[in-house]
Each structure stands twice: as structure tokens, then as C-alpha cells.
Amino acid sequence: TIRYSPNLRYDGYDDPGPRPRIMRNLDQGAPDDISPRKRPGKAKSTPATTENTYVAKEVLIEIAGNPTDAQADDIARRHRLTRVQSQSFALTNSTFFRWRITDGRSVDAVVRELVAGGNVKAAQRNNIFKLQQNATPGAAKPEGDPVQYALAKMRLPEAHALSVGADVTVAVIDSGIDVTHPELAGVITGTFDALNNGEGPHPHGTSIAGVIAAHARLMGTAPSSHLLAIRAFGNQKSGAESTSFLILKSLNYALAKNARIINMSFAGPHDPAMERGLAAAAAKGVVLVAAAGNAGAKSPPLYPAADRNVIAVTAIDQSDKLFAQSNRGSYVAISAPGVDILSPAPDGKYQMSSGTSLSAAYVSGVAALMIARNPGISPADVRATLISTARDLGPKGRDDQFGAGQADAFSAVSAVAPAPVAAASDNGDKR
Fold it and tell me: Could you confirm whether 429 is annotated as catalytic?
């Protein structure tokens, strides 16, 4: 059976040539302060204790505006809580707090107390989210690597004749990105570490950034885009996990830096606070893209992909077959290559990996090509164009496995009317 917490293992390479050297395997650990998990689903008000998909002994609280320390401390005293961290969120004009429960009360019991008290805007669990990239099944075969097959499959060279994503800012909320990798030289225009603990780069975040914007030995989807490298997911011992609070902090940074696209190659349970944040981002014209999930055919919908404002992307292989571990469901919007993808790894290396994480990155890159061609295009138009120009796969028309079909970069970019060229000035200079 497919486990919700798959090992993050990478078959990595020093060189994308025909005889790669295996780099290493990275096995995922678990954060010290995060409880064990089972299969995810939408958060219920009274779950069984074995269904923990949230941080034990913590609550996430939203208070309108910017409360003073005295106001926050008063609420904490009244509800017997210890403040851990806070973050103001300009788009929703509110402040989020992480508070620790120091007695034997359950998280859901405290949430109910806070809501009943009427002096907070909202209260919920601090949910757990996981990156959605798996090991490539088996070792890569030196004589048969499908090196960058996605380029021809998505017609990216043809699309690049029309747009290379110039100056479009894509926020990558992920694990640590190797900003010094040659593939990413000159494209990282901002970094933010939501964990703030000094960890180094991680294979997952580095590969996602590379799929979007690589431009040395490899060719990214939008090689002239700008990336915001946002680390919300831990490295090694802390594994590939994050929480509602850390992702909200990251979302806040992305919006403050005017990201046009936010790539979210992670998945977890339904999260009301994140839902509100994503709605505010969409209202500001931000295109939101997420991995559909790697929890398999029987998994319930995973978030943020299943959010109504998000483009959910699933993974296919070189032969148009669905990645076996992909989630299915009515929320799946579109497909993109996500099996045996060669991408950058930390320390100047390369890796082969699979998962809906990579597929999401391809679609984020295509969105950047579209926005660069016409910066006035809306998130709704980006989604509609991607879907209407997709290459149908599986049963005729939209289906729960492939969505609308495989993203076709050339068709999508061609369907976007270029922004009008500014008229020449009237000073007589016609050059």
C-alpha cells in the first residue's frame, strides 16, 4: 500500500550524461515536535487519536488586526496557553499565533474553547504538510536515461520561441534551494527562511526550482523567470514536513514580494487558515499551483491542491501513463511529466526523481511563460487556457486521473494574445 509519508530518496547525478554516478539516498525523518501521522484527510472536529495530521499540543489562532502584546497575553492567560510565535498577515488584516497547550487538554478541545470565547477571529490545528516527490522506482539505467523528455512532450522549445518567462516572479514554497547551483545562476531574486534555523539546501527544493528555471546543462520550463526561494520545509532529520503556520509565513512573504505565481509542491489536510490566505492571494491576481498528491488512488483529496483557487497537477511518465502513486479526483485540473525527471541537486549535482511535485513545477513554469507574454492575464484565464489547450489523455474529455490532459506549453502560450507594444512617442523619433 502507498504510505502518506513516502521516503524522499533521490538517485542523483554529478553529470546528466549517459553514465551517471549515483549520488546518495536521503531517507526522510520526522521533526522532533511533530506527532506521528496516518493517511491524511480533511480535518474533522473530533478525530481518532491515530489520525494525527497536525502538531501535537499546539493551536493556530487568528486575531483581527494587529493586537498588542497585552491583548494577546490576556487571551493566552484566559485559555491557559503559552505563546510560541506570531505573524501578521496584511492581506487578511489579521495576525496568526502559534500557542502551546501545556496541560492535558486535547487540541480540538482547546480550539472549541477559543471559538466559543468569541475573542479570536478563528482557531484551528497547526496542520502538517508534506512534500510530494518520491524516489524513481529502481536505479536509473545508464544506457537509457529519459533525459529531459518533457521538453519535446510539452513542446517547450517551440514555446520558448514565443516566451521564456522573462522577469515573471515565481515563489517556490519548499525545502531549502541551492541558490549557488549553476542551473539557477542569476534567477534567485529573493530568499526567505521560515524555519530560521540555518539548515542548508535540500534535494527537493533544488529540483523544483530547476524544473522551473534551469538554464545551464538543463533547460527549465521558464528559464528567464525570477524565483523566490522560500524554505518552509526542513532538511534531513526534520524531513520534508512543514506546518500551517510556517506555510502562512511563507505565503505572506511571497505576496509581499509581488510573486505572480506560487508553486506549492506539498500536500496535507484541509486547512481553513490557508484557504483564506489562498483566496486573498487569488484575489490579488496570483496564480496558485500545487501537486495533486502522491498518496494513491484511494486517498481523499489533499490540500492545497484541492482548494478551489489552486491548479492541481498530477504526474505522467514518458509513455503518458499516470504515475502510480498519484491522487485521483475531481479536483485534478491537469497533468504534466513527473516520472524520471532529471533536475539539479545540491552541491552542483543532478538527480533523477518522480512525483506530482515535479509536475506542479512544470505547470508553474508554463504559467510564467503565459504571464510574460501578456502580464495582464488573470489567474482564471491562465487556468482556462491551460485546460483548453491540454492534450487529452485517458477517457475522452476531462477525467479524475489526468484532469483535462497533459499541459502543452506551446499551445498554451500561443493562445495568449501578446500584450500591446507601447506606441512610439510623438517626438518624431521613429527609430
Answer: no
Task: State which H helix or E strand residue 252 sits in.
Answer: helix 244-256
**Active-site option among 5, 326, 354, 357:** 357
174, 178, 271, 307: the catalytic one is 174
What is the pLDDT tens value at each position of the chain, 431 positions in all? 222 222 233 333 333 333 232 232 222 222 223 233 333 333 333 333 334 689 999 999 999 999 999 999 999 999 999 999 999 988 889 999 999 999 999 999 999 999 998 889 999 999 999 998 664 433 333 322 347 899 999 999 999 999 999 999 999 999 999 999 999 999 999 999 999 988 889 999 999 999 999 999 999 999 999 999 999 998 755 457 899 999 999 999 999 999 999 999 999 999 999 999 999 999 999 999 999 999 999 999 999 999 999 999 999 999 999 999 999 999 999 999 999 999 999 999 999 999 999 999 999 999 999 999 999 999 999 999 999 999 999 999 999 999 999 999 999 999 999 988 764 444 544 44
What span, in angstroms and rounded, lies between the C-alpha atoms of 334 and 402? 6
Q: Which residues contact 20 (CB under 8 A, 6 or more apart)?
A: 11, 13, 14, 140, 142, 145, 350, 352
Active site residue 204: yes
357 is known as an active-site residue:
yes
pTM score, whole prediction: 0.84
CA–CA–CA angle 374, 379, 383 (5° rounding): 100
CA distance 32 to 272: 25
Give the start-end residues of each E strand in 276-413.
287-291, 310-316, 332-337, 341-345, 349-354
How far does the chain reach from its first CA to its final CA, in angstroms?
A: 66
